[in-house]
Amino acid sequence: MIQYVSIVLMLIGIYGLLIDRNIIKIIVALNIFEVGLNIFIVSVGFVSGGVAPILTSVNSNSALIYVDPLPQALVLTSIVIGLGTTALALAIARKMYNAYNSLDLDEIGGMDND
Amino acid sequence: MMYIAYFFLILGAFFYAIGGLGVYRMPDVYNRSQAGTKATTLGTLALLIGIAIINPSWIPKLLIIVVFIAITNPIGSSVLVRSAYLKGAKQYEGTNIDELKEYYNKEDANHETN
Amino acid sequence: MTNPVLLIVVPLLLAFLSVALKNNKKQLLFIAAVFNVVGVFIIENGSYVIGGFRAPYGINLNLDAYSHLAVLVINILFLLIITMSNEKTKEFSTVLLVALAGLNGMLLTGDLFNLFVFLEIVSITGYILSTESKKYKYSFNYLILGTIGSGLYLFGLIILYAIFGSLNMADISFKMLSYDTGKLVVPIFLMFIGLAVEAKLIPFNGWVRGVYGNANSLIGSLFASVYAGTILFVFGRVFGQVLVLSEYLVAVFVAIGVITLIAGEVAAFSKNKIREILLFSSIAQSGLVALLFVTGLIFPTVLQLLNNIITKAVMFTIAGKISDDADTDEADKLKGIFANNKIIGVSFTVSALSLIGLPLFYGFYSKINLLLGLFSKINYFVAAFILLATIIEGAYFIRLLVKLWTPGEEGKESNIKFVTDRKVEFDFNKKVIAFMLSLIILLAGISPSLVKTNLFAMNKLLNEENPSYMFELKGGM
Amino acid sequence: MKKNISSFLIIWITWILLTGININELIVGFIVSALLSYVISNLIDYEFSFNSIPKIIKFLVVYIPVFLFELIKANLDVAYRVLSPSMPINPGFVRIPTKIKSEYGRLTLANSITLTPGTLTVDVSEDSVYIHWIDVKGNNNEDYQKNVSASFEKILGGIFN
Amino acid sequence: MINTLVFLLIGIGVFFAFLRLVIGPSSFDRVLSLDIINIIVTGTLVFVGFIFNNELYLDIAIVYAILSFIETVVFARYLEGSI
Amino acid sequence: MDFNALILFMVFSAVLSYLVSKSNIKLGAYSTILFSLISLIILFLGRNNIGNEFSLLYMNFRVTAIGWYFSLIMILIYSMTAFFNPYWMEKILYPSSYNFLYLFSLAATVGLFFAADLITLFIFWEVVVWSSTFIVPLGKSRKAAVVYFTISSIGSMATLFAIMFVYSKSGTFDINEAFKFLASEPLTATFVFFTFITAGLTKIGIFPFHIWLPLAHGNAPHTFSPVLSGGLVKMGAFIAYLSVGILPAYKAFSTSMTIMGIPFQIYLLMVLGAISIVVGTLMAIKQDDVKKLIAYSSVANGGYILIGILMMDQVTFAGSLMHIFNHAIASAAAFLTIAAIAHRTKTTKISELGGMIHKMPVSYVVYLISIISLAGIPPMGGFVSKWLIVQGLASKGLIFIAFAAFFGSIGSFLYVFRPLAGLFLGQLAPKYENIKPSTLVMKIPMVILASMSVFFGIFPKYLLETIGEIQTSIGIDPIMINGDTITTINGVLNTNKVAAIFGFGFVISLMIFLVLPKSRKVGLMDTYTSAEFIYTPELYHYANSFYAPFERLYKNHPSVEKFLGKFAVKTEELGILVNSLFFSHKPSVTVLWVMAIATLIFLGGVDI
Amino acid sequence: MKRIAVIILLGVLGFFIFSGIYSNEAFTEFGNVDLNNRVSNKFITKSVTDENDIVEFGKSSNLETGSANYVTSIVVNYRSFDTLGEVTVLFISSLGVALLLGTLGGKLTHKYRANFILRVGAKTIFPLIALTGIYIFIHGHLTPGGGFPGGSMIASAVLLLYLADENFRAKMSSFKLAESFAGSLYVLIGIFGLLTSGYFLNNFMNTGVIGDLFSAGIIPIVYVLVGLKVGSELTGIITDFLKVEVDE
Ligand code: NA
Ligand code: NA
């Protein structure tokens, strides 16, 4: 179920990319896509009945069933990378707004056409 | 002892419910904020007390959470309500007195910086 | 000290340091580039485990002859390009240091997820470098496409992980051998999209025109040469060596490659601006290289890839410098520009002729080899398409060269005094290195045995023991 | 220096609350707290005045119970208003004068007002607290103050001034 | 049993706050309801940790509380036009 | 001297010439004369090298009789034309590079003719193409260079495909070995035959590849047009020879349908040759620019040559080989006279010239001889070779082809006469009153080439003997010559008698010309109308609309140029389409493509 | 119309993605994963280089990686090279933001000055948030957390200060220095491992008893560095975004 949801979320992000002309909305759409992807990554590591992959005084040995920790590590990387690109995208968006005085890609397209 | 704990747990949850309901039912953003903030603060307090009773070893961290919520919750509401006020969010029709307006209109109040 | 990880981490260390040592950024960049060039000659082939955890559990670097050749070429070109456009490196020194680290990481890593990380690093440096032109809408486009592309790559990779339980290239490759790869169309194609965006394959490459078309001498040549080379080497690694492709996907990728090749050449044909001609030519070359890799030809593809990136390094540097100085790169406004810059003109010409694949230039050697390869695989149609592309390529490059060499109006006797009034002056670095590279192209063309003996030393690389179609020039009869 | 030490102590105590008592944690916490309090003093104008134990004790012993009582009262009030079908309200924005000078005193006052029945602090000035009041009772600011914050004002004034 | 009741009540609170989040009408209403939901979630995290007998949830709750506070402030300052 | 030394010498002479030019341009130009003449002598004296094999770098060579023959013609043309180089140095953009490319392309042609393997052949072929491509735009036209290169590329890529294909089947590049297996595989042979010969067709300028000739010949530097037309075109003939001589075409096609005994594959190309004759002739007639006119005549003559080579028999083949020589020297000489005129007048347009006979009588005579030879009119060499070709065709009953050849001969009268009248005869334009005759150095090659045309027209046996040896070397019965009488199945030609008759006629007409009274001279632009000033006196030049009624006949003729022009436009439009479809600054465009393609591919590759 | 077409396209695409994924038997249904088929299997028992049957909290000691948090053991040990890359991504992104926005010199002026409550509240709460951040990255091997969330906490604490006081300016030079120092040290630790054991980023320190603070070798050190670095970088990004254009 969660996997279906995550893929649908990715598609929603792509949908946003396809129909939005506003730069900020496109960035948001991209983030929705990434969220969907990240959920998918985590979902791939889920094990029914598995516990969070941290040894504690309660879950104290490796013989227990744990969920796959690797996708969780990967998703951490994915999130950070997404954060970095989003920051950069926003910075570019701001420069675009300064340069073209618009956030609408259709409007911007008409300017400095080369 | 357990029953006291349960009482607190249910009390906390009850105030969460009241908080949510209050946010839903109150007439304007200011009143909603009032209801939500108070109820959830107390709700958290009660809930955590309940848990602390059953699980005394958790008390230090629970204490941090409680203190933190008690400080930040009202601050957050204040900041939000002030923004709403400054932006002229709709007030309940029966709101008669407004001494804040005078304060913000005073020149030296220096709230609007540009 | 022969661990290739240093090629990645030393530039990275210097990148971090460069934030503190603001005033010596340029020197740090140069030091790193030289370090890596020296390093590529010292490192020894092998699998290098990081952190001490054996593959497939830990990440390992895979320095076989293939990646060795790749890092060799890429690092040398990187050094040459930053030296050629030395005057432009200051602002981007740290970015370039990170890029150098990332490029080496992409080439060396033996782990598909680690590849994703390095791909992102390199892409982000690309986005940043692309903003130099101040045409932000193109950078934005590049960023969005790059991100969605690598997102899809990751999506595909995670599916593979769920199926094979591993991220290690060799491990996955091995496990795929006993798997019905016909069922892996979705994950592999998703990964393909990710690399195809960066590798400039049609229709995944919408960003290329805006970004390449406005790049200056430094950034254009870096993109077209070092970045493009790296991504194609990686493409060859992933889709030519690691992933086992079903017949269906091979057909699909070859079709995409052919379409890219022809569409790229046709688009280049319709252009007048130098950088646009070059960028479409790059697109076409990417299509060519990608399809050859997918066809299973490693050796001749690498030869062709080298041809592309060495020549593009020269040509994009020159084109970028021209448009930096003359404020235009429209060939029609730059007629006869080489009359005053003969050394540069000769370098550009040699590069272009090599790219077309004319004899006496290195490109001929690679073209013959790839044709031999294709014919040995009975791939006549692809060969025919490549030759068709060569005709178009020849037409527009000759048209460009003739314009840039001969001033004056069409139909009038040329005379030197009609040279364009646009002042373009090339500095010493550019002249020397561009000329040196064109000399290498020429030498390698006249005496391919030079290339052959050197490449045969690393032949095992190419996972083809003594390729049967190797163009043995002497006694080729 | 005094400021640094007090902030250091507060931070260290917080650390201990977070980690529990353990020799390694204490050492690490000590280092962290020292560094952090140093950095904070550089980063912000950190006016710290919790520098006497009696004040803190007074705060805990006297103020907290009053506050808790008010908080419970407030919530019963909220519960009533939320659940009652007809809500008798007479909202308004009013000014409550205060004599507390300390920043932390005024902050505590403001927060306390927010958490007590029917009132919510919107802004604080040098000498007043501006609140939103669901059911305004009284005719002038002194009335308001008496109805809203008199008990807090008294205790907090004792602690912070 | 107790747990179910607790979850039920929490659910009611979140549900109505969420309704407000959806219907608004102003952005301030939405941010407010989000803030309320966040606080409820914080408490719920602690409660879940209590049920799983896993102290690690407390750390998560602390972080969550901090981030939700900052989120509220950011939204408020954004909505008033200060950033 | 060994020929590997010859090739090395030629390459180094190119480099040397470049270096000399860098210090002194004039000296560099003279060095091209010297070096090409030395090469010519070495080649001529080194005939004993025939049969030798040698290697350079990775290239393999084998000296054959026919290769030697072609090389000789090529070096002859280059060395004769080189005499003009010194006069063009200051008019050419990059004189040093010109000298280098001039000698370098010559070296490459010799390498081509001596190639022992297909790769070597292809390498030299392409080297000639690109080195000569870069000479063309040093003249007037960039477009010409592009068209020249592109059409050449079409040919060479097709040929490369054939080479690779043959290699992949036979495992060898050796020219003599590679094609052998085709003898028993008619279908494969047909494919290889057509692809391999394409480069040759483009170079000869066979319809529909002929369009580059007028462009390139017409716009190349005046000193290079002779080489292009007289020399380089002949490389195509060499490829054609390889395609029927070495590639066992007749053997492979022995089971094919035949037309008058010729396999249809070969006949098809002969038809193309015939069309080239007709098209070349027709187009030559309407040219105003002499250089273009001669270029079209080259197209027509290329048709003859191709047809002759394709026959691979005793008479026609010999005629063709002879025509290669005759056409080379005649067309080179004709272009040289144009160059000589252009050197003084700066133009090559008939409508801007006239009366040059008064200023450049030697050029006039040379031009007259050459163009007569080109047209295949007795008593010049061109007549003999064309006669042989027509004889050969007629003997095989190839009436259609023979008719085209005949048509070409008639048409050539028309195009010969036009420049003759327009350029040399008639009135001298006032602005050329004071021009000087061509220099002595220029006269040398012109006179030598013209003399050769006459000499081999009267005494063809010296040439035909060599050709006979070539025929013997490749297993064809040599042509029969007895003194100055050539005997074919259908007829006998005694060139001496023919020459005597024409000589007699010439003397008679000269006497009539001298005896009869001359008309009064009026200045060429001395044109008055009733008190109105004429703004465009050129229109009143009598050479204007010389063949007006004729030109009207094919005003809207279908043309390959137009077709290719449209093709180029379509390619450009396709490029623009590619651009607008795929390259947008909006990510949505690309993402849409990605998703659509992905959907399509999953549709085909995912099991549901 | 366009929207409907896009939705249909994506619907079809989604359908094929589902089919394409789930047609693989090896792609088990959600939750039915058998870790024995995955490399993670050995991460759980910490037996990539050692052989362990079972790892017990508070008992097992000197394991190949001492982190009680399995995710952390992957992030900072088994796949620490990824993490170095991840740090680099953030580093380069913040650098990019600085290159783009750093030229903007103006200071953000809040439209409304922060009210008293926020001003004082932020100062009060700041140390707590920062401390929590530090706590998180120091305990990354014991609790869910680590360098990245810890660093983000620190940066968000700074953000709070920005929101509360328009006169507040983070001393970017110090942050830059911290960033540079932390990054360089991370690499140098890796190189130290390479020099001592032949493996880059080798965990060259002893690992104690699993569950102790000092139990994970270089993990806490790396996480402190990562935390500092991430904190500085995010602070830099925030600072750059709060700049405004100066009219020229
Ligand atoms: Na990317
Ligand atoms: Na790229």
Written overview of the protein:
The complex is a heteroheptamer. Chain A is mainly α and 114 residues long. Chain A has helices at 2-19, 23-44, 69-100, 105-109. Chain A has a single domain (2-46, 68-109), classed as Orthogonal Bundle (Helix Hairpins). Chain A is built from 4 helices and no strands. With 477 residues, chain C is an all-alpha fold. Chain C is built from 18 helices and 2 strands. The longest helix of chain C has 29 residues, at 136-164. Mean pLDDT of chain C is 88; it is low at 472-477. By secondary structure, chain F is mainly α. Chain F has helices at 3-23, 25-45, 65-82, 85-88, 95-113, 118-135, 142-170, 175-178, 186-204, 212-219, 225-246, 249-252, 264-285, 290-311, 315-345, 361-375, 381-396, 399-424, 440-458, 461-473, 495-515, 548-553, 560-582, 587-605; strands at 53-56, 59-62, 258-259, 262-263, 480-482, 485-487, 492-494. The longest helix of chain F has 31 residues, at 315-345. The mean pLDDT of chain F is 83. Chain G is globular and about 60 Å long. Chain G has 248 residues and is mostly helical. The E-G interface holds E 56, 59-60, 62-63, 66-67, 69-70, 73-74, 77, 80-83 and G 108, 110-112, 114, 118, 122, 125, 128-129, 132, 136, 139, 143-145, 149, 153, 156, 159-160, 163-164, 242. The site of one sodium ion has 6 residues of chain C, from helix 10.
Biggest sheet details of chain B: none
**First-last Cα distance of chain D:** 21 Å
Helix proportion of chain D: 55-70%
Considering DSSP H and I runs of 4 or more, what fraction of the residues of chain B is helical? over 70%
Average pLDDT confidence of chain D is: 82
Low-confidence stretches of chain B: none
Radius of gyration of chain B: 18 Å
Helix vs. strand class of chain D: mainly alpha
Structural class of chain B: mainly alpha
Query: What form of chain B results from the Cα inertia axes?
Result: elongated
Largest interface: C-F, 84 and 74 residues
How many helices of chain B in DSSP terms?
A: 4
Strand content of chain B: under 5%
H/E element sequence of chain D: HHHEHEEHH
**SSE string of chain B, helix = H, strand = E?**
HHHH
Strand count, sense and barrel status of the largest sheet of chain D are: 3 strands, antiparallel
What is the topology?
The complex is a heteroheptamer.
Chain C: H1 5-20, H2 25-42, E1 46-49, E2 60-63, H3 65-84, H4 93-108, H5 112-130, H6 136-164, H7 169-177, H8 185-199, H9 208-212, H10 217-242, H11 247-269, H12 274-295, H13 299-326, H14 342-356, H15 362-376, H16 380-405, H17 428-446, H18 448-457
Antiparallel strand pairs in C: 1-2
Helix pairs in contact in C: 1-2, 1-4, 2-3, 2-4, 3-4, 3-10, 3-13, 4-5, 4-10, 5-6, 5-10, 6-8, 8-10, 10-12, 10-13, 11-12, 11-16, 12-13, 12-16, 13-14, 13-15, 13-17, 14-16, 14-17, 15-17, 17-18
Chain D: H1 2-19, H2 23-43, H3 53-83, E1 92-97, H4 103-115, E2 119-124, E3 128-133, H5 141-148, H6 150-160
Antiparallel strand pairs in D: 1-3, 2-3
Helix pairs in contact in D: 1-2, 3-6, 4-6
Chain F: H1 3-23, H2 25-45, E1 53-56, E2 59-62, H3 65-82, H4 85-88, H5 95-113, H6 118-135, H7 142-170, H8 175-178, H9 186-204, H10 212-219, H11 225-246, H12 249-252, E3 258-259, E4 262-263, H13 264-285, H14 290-311, H15 315-345, H16 361-375, H17 381-396, H18 399-424, H19 440-458, H20 461-473, E5 480-482, E6 485-487, E7 492-494, H21 495-515, H22 548-553, H23 560-582, H24 587-605
Antiparallel strand pairs in F: 1-2, 3-4, 5-6, 6-7
The complex binds sodium ion (NA) (2 copies).
The site of one sodium ion has 6 residues of chain C, from helix 10.
